[in-house]
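hey
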């Protein structure tokens, strides 16, 4: 019997010792009533009437009444006994159920923790857990004054395999690669899938660089045998970059970045693996170094926001702005989001970036509201944000803190963002939309989904991608696509917005076709926050 069970049961018994149970009280009352009635009856039979003397006489002389007088004690003991048995049984039932509930809570906590820290496809640790383990490994290596290594592995030509054979093949290949990696490394070494076709392996205890090179060669050999994926046989190679602690970096960020630089060299030189060499930095593409710098950029506030006005055609009013992020890089100048957003998505920094954009964007709209400038705000959201369970609390918290109504916020998601994991995205979008937040499908037409496909989602707006809009006057196919999206969107009860409106004739054509919202350089380029109030008063001249 566990301590907990024992405690519950002995508490029940203790309780019964200090107070009378209902059964005991009823038993005693019935017994006392029976004694009174019996005594009166005896008195009546012996003296022809009921008198006090007769009652006293009956009690003194009638042996049956003496026995009956013992009944209240019997009932009291019986009542307490029955109640204690019932209390015991109820207690035991509660203990059983509590134990079961506890087991369920522990199991679901364990499952949730596993999901947060593991990659769904391969069941390997994800980037979050890997970074944590890497920090720990660095800590231990530092304390014990010995080296350790980080390997970054990228599957060669994975994109081609994925594009030509399809995602099912790609997914299955990644699972098989993960299985072979797991079988090759030691139990103490962590393998993680850090995104796409990239794996990271932490070797926490090596004696020198030859150990890391040997592991890399072993991994290369393990991947040599062909992969059977459905009915295809694939020859796959990988490129591995090696960075050593402390030689190539003392922090997790530095080691990961340097392993990636080395991996890029291995890929370029088709040599399987390469050890980091600082001289390689010049040869590595800008994206590799930028990826490593992005975290610092966020911490040092090197990012800033621009706001592009969205015209409400019917109201002839700019009632919304789209927030667009920029990076003021100390050496490269302003870097556009098309370059750094994919990096943020690949390195898992996007959640941090989205939080930053939401916080600053929402604050800015609240600030305008204080100046009597009322604007809605639209924010671009990535797939990883939608899979982040904290997103809901973060957004609703920010809206409340800045006294913004949910209806003032539009979240722009692309079709592919939704399709990465439709069930999960749908549940998050439903929760958000239920508060009044609007959901817009960005860059519509560039993905593979149909509008009907998306109609199950709580979508209030579609944005036609600028690639169809910008040349719609010359390209009749694009003009037809734009028209079809407007009609279908309206039939499904959605608003239709066009982006990329960069000249007056496109503006007139789209307004004529019944577009609800328009956005583009002709109507307004992305502006700094302090340019918006002045611009709002002059920008409408083109519209009226
Ligand atoms: P998007 O969400 O489709 O944003 C519209 C993009 O089209 C913006 O580019 C905008 O400047 C540009 N644009 C609008 N009108 C015109 C026009 O008339 N002509 C031309 N040539 N371009 C026009 P931007 O700011 O470079 O952003 C590019 C993409 O980067 C965005 O596309 C969005 O997908 C992504 N992005 C920007 N900021 C963020 C962010 O904070 N978070 C996320 N997740 N993505 C962002
Ligand atoms: Mg957008
Ligand atoms: Mg767009």
């Amino acid at each position: 019997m566990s301590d907990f069970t024992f405690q519950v049961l002995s508490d029940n018994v203790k309780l019964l010792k200090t107070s009378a149970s209902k059964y005991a009280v009823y038993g005693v009352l019935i017994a006392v009533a029976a004694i009174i009635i019996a005594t009166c009856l005896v008195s009546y039979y012996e003296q022809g009437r009921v008198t006090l003397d007769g009652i006293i006489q009956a009690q003194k002389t009638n042996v049956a009444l003496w026995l009956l007088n013992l009944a209240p004690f019997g009932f009291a003991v019986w009542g307490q006994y029955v109640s204690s048995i019932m209390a015991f049984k109820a207690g035991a039932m509660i203990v059983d159920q509590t134990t079961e509930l506890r087991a369920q809570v522990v199991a679901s906590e364990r499952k949730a923790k596993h999901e947060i820290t593991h990659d769904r496809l391969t069941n390997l640790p994800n980037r979050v857990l890997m970074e944590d383990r890497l920090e720990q490994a660095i800590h231990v290596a530092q304390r014990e004054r010995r080296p350790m290594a980080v390997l970054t592995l990228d599957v060669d030509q994975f994109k081609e395999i994925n594009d030509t054979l399809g995602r099912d093949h790609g997914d299955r290949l990644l699972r098989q690669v993960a299985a072979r990696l797991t079988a090759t490394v030691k139990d103490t070494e962590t393998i993680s899938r850090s995104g796409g076709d990239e794996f990271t392996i932490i070797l926490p205890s090596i004696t020198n660089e030859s150990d890391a090179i040997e592991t890399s060669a072993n991994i290369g050999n393990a991947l040599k045998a062909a992969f059977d994926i459905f009915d295809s046989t694939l020859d796959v190679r990988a490129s591995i970059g090696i960075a050593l602690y402390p030689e190539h970096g003392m922090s997790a960020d530095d080691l990961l970045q340097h392993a990636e630089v080395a991996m890029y060299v291995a890929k370029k030189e088709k040599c399987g693996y390469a050890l980091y060499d600082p001289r390689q930095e010049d040869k590595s593409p800008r994206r590799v170094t930028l990826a490593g710098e992005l975290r610092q950029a966020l911490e040092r506030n090197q990012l800033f926001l621009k706001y592009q006005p969205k015209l409400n055609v019917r109201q002839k009013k700019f009632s919304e702005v789209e927030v667009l992020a920029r990076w003021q890089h100390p050496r490269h100048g302003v870097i556009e989001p098309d370059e750094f957003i994919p990096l943020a998505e690949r390195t898992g920094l996007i959640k941090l970036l989205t939080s930053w954009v939401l916080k600053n964007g929402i604050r800015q709209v609240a600030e305008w509201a204080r100046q009597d400038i009322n604007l809605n705000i639209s924010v671009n959201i990535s797939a990883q944000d939608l899979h982040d369970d904290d997103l809901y609390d973060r957004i609703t918290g920010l809206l409340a803190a800045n006294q913004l109504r949910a209806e003032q916020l539009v979240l722009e998601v692309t079709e592919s963002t939704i399709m990465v994991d439709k069930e999960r995205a749908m549940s998050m979008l439903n929760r958000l939309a239920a508060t009044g937040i609007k959901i817009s499908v960005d860059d519509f037409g560039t993905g593979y989904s149909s509008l009907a496909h998306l109609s199950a989602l709580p979508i209030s707006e579609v944005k036609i991608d600028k690639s169809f809009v910008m040349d719609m006057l010359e390209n009749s196919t694009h003009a037809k696509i734009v028209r079809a999206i407007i009609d279908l969107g309206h039939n499904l009860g959605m608003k239709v917005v066009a982006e990329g409106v960069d000249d007056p004739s496109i503006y007139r054509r789209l307004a004529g076709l019944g577009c609800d919202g328009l956005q583009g350089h002709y109507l307004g380029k992305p502006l700094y926050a302090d340019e918006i109030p002045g611009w709002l008063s002059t920008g409408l001249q083109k519209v009226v």
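The radius of gyration is 37 Å. Residues 442-443, 463, 465, 499 surround magnesium ion (ligand 3) (CB under 6 Å).
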